[in-house]
Each structure stands twice: as structure tokens, then as C-alpha cells.
Amino acid sequence: MRFLRMRFDSRQKVDPTRTEIETIDGRRVPVTLIVNPRARHVSVRIDPARREAIATAPTPRHLKHAAQFAAERAGWIAHELARLPKGVSLTPGSVAPIRGVEHDLVFAHGRAKPRVEGGLLPRLIVEAPDPALFERRVLRFLKDQARADLIDRVAHHAVTLGVRPERIQVKELRSRWGSCSVDGVLSFSWRLILAPGFVLDYLAAHEVAHLREMNHSRRFWAHVRRCMPEFERGRDWLHEHGSELHAVGLAR
Ligand SMILES: [Zn+2]
User: Fold this and answer.
1) Distance from C-alpha of 36 to C-alpha of 64, rounded to nearest angstrom
2) Span from the CA of 55 to the centroid of ligand 1 (angstroms)
């Protein structure tokens, strides 16, 4: 197999290396090889946002082993990648969910702010002087909406638990939906705005609860429940549909 002849210099810091592996029936699947000193073994996982497999090695010396490990699982990787939901591009004419409701994305020449026209088939009308700017404007609109909703829900839950977050960040997060740093900064994935409102609300409650309990102990979940008695609904929804959110506006 061709990739096994790749050479790695173990003295250098290694940037992610992209490669392809071949399944028994000849399909080629993309794999990114990374070094993570905190990893204890070589491993392989699927990154739904990038639609590729990530093979991890604890040291540069183990990269070849990680590549081989991935190659032995080429069939599984191809199967998992094929199972990912089809990508939804944020281009004029496509349909994307906002707060769980499908919206037609409509381009208009102009400079006005994006606006939603309701009705049975709601439309998000995004103006730009040039269609090439459309996707960027849609993304900015979605991030702004996510930030507004999250600020509102975080403030609400923070009162319930008697805590005060330092700051709220909304950005692209690859492998999780939110996080809470030791200095009280809450980070969230902008993609939560695509999901029904109770899902974003659950994530807000989850990260706010970390300001009380920096772990996932029973005490932690009790705080989440105080914020949101039916939090499981949001957690289950993400478990089941999370990869669909990653398929919107594919990361390139
Ligand atoms: Zn957590």
C-alpha cells in the first residue's frame, strides 16, 4: 500500500499529514494523520465536519503505525463516511435549518441586513453586492443569531445557579458543542443555531453548570437539571442529529 512508504522525520514537529487509503474494493478514503502527545495509543476516528478519518499517533515515530492502523480499518472508515448526512451548502437556492426550521436561502442584490420572511416555507433573504459574498454573509448572520440566543440562555441559567461567566465565545468547534475554561470562558459551536431551540438551551445549561462543577459528576447533572428539568431531550437530540449539523456549510 502506497502510504506505508511515507517517511516521517521523528525529530521534527509534524503538521497534520493528509493521505488516502484504499479499501479492499478499491475505494479511496481520506485520512489525516496527526500527532497528539496526550494520546496513549494509535487510534482512528471520524471527523464529521471535515468528512474524513483522523488517525492519531502519540509521537511522530508512531505515525506509520497509525497509518497502518487506519488502513486495516479502511472498510469501516468508508462505511462511516458514507453514513454521514449529505452536505448542505450555504448557497442561494439551498435549504438550511435555523432553530430547527428549514429556511430557503435567497440571494438579493443590495446591502440591507439579512431578514427572515415567515410563512409556511420561511425564507432567509441575504443581500450582498456580489453573490460571491453570499455564503460569508449567511454564516455571519447565523453566528450572530447563535450568539444572541446563547447570551440570553446563559444569562438565564447563570441566575438559576448563582454564577457569572467571564465571557461567551461562539465559533467553529470541531469535536464538541461547547466548553467551559477554568477561567470561566464559555465557548459554543455556532451550529447550535441550526438545531431546535431546546438543544441550544441545553448546551447553555450544560456549560453554565460547569461553572459550578468542572466535571460530569452526579452533582454536575443535578445542576443541569435545576436549569432544565428535561435536559435529556436536548442531549439525546444532539447525540442523534449532531452529525447533521456538521454537514451544513461544510468546512473546507
Ligand atoms: Zn461537559
Assistant:
1) 14
2) 24
Q: For residue 187, which of 209, 172, 202 has the smallest C-alpha distance?
A: 172
C-alpha cell at 48: 464529521
* Lowest mean per-residue pLDDT among 71-75, 149-153, 182-186, 246-250: 246-250
Q: Going from the N-terminus, what domains does the chain have, and what CATH number goes with each?
A: 2-83 (no CATH), 95-246 (3.30.2010.10)
Check residue 133 and report its DSSP letter.
G
Return the C-alpha cell found at 82. 458514507
Q: State pLDDT tens for residues 201-227.
A: 999 999 999 999 999 999 999 999 999
Q: What is the mean pLDDT of residues 120-149?
A: 95
Tell me, what's the pLDDT at 250?
A: 64
Q: What is the rounded distance in angstroms from the CA atom of residue 3 to the CA atom of residue 118?
A: 52
pLDDT at 118: 87
Measured in degrees and rounded to the nearest 5, phi and psi for residue 215 equal -160, -175
Q: How many A from CA of 199 to the centre of ligand 1?
A: 14
Centre of ligand 1 to C-alpha 24, Å, is 39
Distance 216 CA to ligand 1 centre (A): 6
Distance 203 CA to ligand 1 centre (A): 9
